[in-house]
Amino acid sequence: MNIVINKDLQELTKTFKTNSKFNVRSLESHEISNKSIKDADAVFLRSTTKINEELLDNTNVKFVASLTSGEDHINQDYFENSNIYLSTGKGGNALAVIEYLLSVLSVLIIGNKIEPFETRIGIIGYGNIGKRFKNILDEINFPNYIYDPYFPDVSSSLEKVLSSGVISLNCSYSKTGKFPSHNLLDINFLNEMKDEQFLINSSRGEVLSDEYYLSKKSDNFIFDVWPNEPNLNLTKFKKPFIATPHIAGKTISAENKFNEKALSEFNDFFDENIEAIEPKKLIDFTIDNSIEEEMEVFGIPPSIFLKIYDVKRDDLAFKSFFETKENPRDFQKLRTSLKRLGLNNHKIVSDLGTAAKSKLELFGFRL
User: Fold this and answer.
1) pLDDT of 321-357, one tens digit each?
2) Shortest CA distance to 335 belongs to which of 222, 215, 226?
3) What's phi and psi for 88, nearest 5 deg?
4) Percent of the chain at pLDDT exceeding 70
5) What is the pLDDT of residue 278?
6) Residue 15 and residue 20: Cα distance in Å, rounded?
7) How far apart are CA 238 and CA 29, in angstroms?
8) pLDDT at 31
9) pLDDT grade, residue 57 (50/70/90)?
10) CA–CA separation, 301 vs 260, rounded Å?
11) Cβ proximity of 171 and 207 under 8 Å
12) Other CB atoms within 10 Å distance of the CB of residue 196
């Protein structure tokens, strides 16, 4: 069986190469084309590849796996009218994005940018990430509002959410449909933003209009996603308060989830029995009772979050992209190099009380 795998999916490539019945080719994103996959039976791809008629027509492909949570690079209509099986990783990196948001909140709290228990947080999008984020905020008594027109029972008005001290974009990206999110926030809201407000975008770059990336209000923004990825020219963009290269959802745990789901559906489709060979990493993480006091003061334990994952480290690694026009392949290489362990790779060792343990488990730690 012929299989093509995106070169970034290294663990998946190792898994298939252990079995001689599979002829595996590992290709860079820019090498994946209709011609290069013509004889493949199955392909395993990332969001950097447009999955559509142009890629798949007149090929031997019977199974396509997209190992990423977003689906805006996929032409869903094409698959409805084809005999090709589509596997997606939707929701597979929700916990990783939550960890990114908790690291961001830790930076804002420690930097006295927001007030614990007082600064209101607005969440746009009530999917896998938005729901989990709200559950955490409710548990730690941070005031919050949701905007999602697809969930009117829990949704506040967009205006109310946009008046929040911190606004987190966690919506899916779409240009069509009843409530398209393309350029959801435009120049009108940008002009109304207050200096003390922060906007976090970990969804898709095009949810914001281009003016945001050119704005002089650089201290207002925390961007993990960018327009027209990976073909970036950030020299014209104003560097925001925090800038990261689309790595919010890029943890080893999330990647393992993507791999496991894709392999499971591959096995069902082809009647195979392939198992991932990448061992699950689990680290004992010892903490003392001072964490309980820290959570009483801040709602969350910033010292733990920033010790395991400090988003400012990735911000520092990304800063060169604002000085020179980088090759799109360099952007992808940087993303891959910044893959990290997740909170659920850490097993808490402590004698904390039940309430503190419950919160740590909600954040994503193992107990």
Assistant:
1) 888 777 777 888 898 899 899 998 999 999 899 999 9
2) 226
3) -125, 165
4) 99
5) 64
6) 11
7) 28
8) 94
9) very high
10) 31
11) yes
12) 12
CA 253 to chain centroid: 12
| Higher per-residue pLDDT: 341 or 101 | 101
SS3 per residue for the chain: CEEEEECCCHHHHHHHHCCCCCEEEEECHHHCCCCCCCCCCEEEECCCCCECHHHHCCCCCCEEEECCCCCCCECHHHHHCCCCEEEECCCCCHHHHHHHHHHHHHHHHHCCCCCCCCCCEEEECCCHHHHHHHHHHHHCCCCEEEECCCCCCCECCHHHHHCCCEEEECCCCCCCCCCCCCCCECHHHHHHCCCCCEEEECCCHHHECCHHHHCCCHHHEEECCCCCCCCCCHHHCCCCCEECCCCCCCEHHHHHHHHHHHHHHHHHHHCCCCCCCCCCCCEEEECCCHHHHHHHHHCCCHHHHHHHCCHHHHHHHHHHHHCCCCCHHHHHHHHHHCCECCHHHEEEECCCCHHHHHHHHHHCCEC
In the sheet that 42-45 helps form, which strands lie side by side, from edge to edge?
23-27, 2-6, 42-45, 63-66, 85-88
What pTM, to 2 d.p., does this model score?
0.90
Q: Which domains does the chain have, with CATH numbers?
A: 2-90 (3.40.50.720), 94-249+295-361 (3.40.50.720)
Query: Is beta strand 198-201 parallel, antiparallel or unpaired with respect to 166-169?
Result: parallel
Nearest to 133 by CA among 106, 160, 94: 94
pLDDT one-digit tens code per residue, 201-257: 999 999 999 999 999 888 899 999 999 888 888 888 889 999 999 999 999 888 888
